[in-house]
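User: Could you check the structure of this?
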Amino acid sequence: MACKIFIELFPRNGHNPEKFFYGLWPKNNCKKMKRKVVEGTSYATIKKEVFKKKIGENTVRDMIRFVEAKQLNMWGREKTSFFVGRNVSLCLWKDLYKHGFNYIEDQIRDWMPLSSKSLQHNLQEIRLVLKGRTEELVVLQETKVLRRQARKAGLPKAVCDIELWIDSVDCRMDGKASTSRKDPSWSYKENSPAQRYQVVSSAAGRIQKIWGRYSPKVFDGNWLNINKQQLVELFRNRVFVADCHYEWGKENLKGIKFHVPFPRPRGKKKAGEKDGANLRVLTKEQQKYNADVKKARARVESPFGLIKTKWGCLKEYFAEGPEQLDALVWIACGVHNFQLPSK
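Assistant: Sure, the predicted structure tokens are below.
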């Protein structure tokens, strides 16, 4: 019996091992075990899908020129004149649509034979370089420009002097099952590991300043205290709108004005108290002020909300490490600013 198995497993010339293999298993199992043939995607189609996400052609060309000037040590056998440009396009395609490296390898094998490891190396090197380019696009505008943008927003009268919007954003990372909730990287906002960024934006949706990456467990008020000196130097005589987490700045950051809503009264009814006794509620003026702040804050998360919607890798769990996530956040914010009107 053993001899027979040996002959069948290692057949002689003329014997079809594939036929014998199919004879042992049901046809349904054989279909599942066959490798799925994936139709490739042309480079022209990839560019169209990148442009479909409203990444302008001028933006892509600017990125390609910047990466080519850095002369990166990229992996690949056939390095033609358009090798760098195609890798930059693939990097954007992957991050916009959250494609995996193995999937990209199957799609491009007809016109750019690269292994998934080579793709991973090239695309991660490109991200780190593009971060430097996009950092130049996130700059603080002049006060008169910010005020002109705020006037066009039609803010309520009580908060019409607002110039800047500030809020924190968490970007999810892979490892939810293996990360303890006590870990510094755990975000209760996203219910997963994450990295937190502090984002300052204008009424026009242009991102003015980014801080990160840091632990999601750092409270916004504590973050203001840690960066107190830098904030006072950068934003002296500026006016912010924020949520209740930034109330510390309203009282302690001299030279900076914060519009934050009045917190709701907290407390429980004590034993022996009559219903309604010592009940603390917000006055009508405070309630109206909170409503005005809420209307103004509707713009706070809109820039990063649009960014997360556009970039699929930021919308889902990111699995390439915090350094690559940080580079992607900067690239996304830089592209966002690059495509906004300059005036």
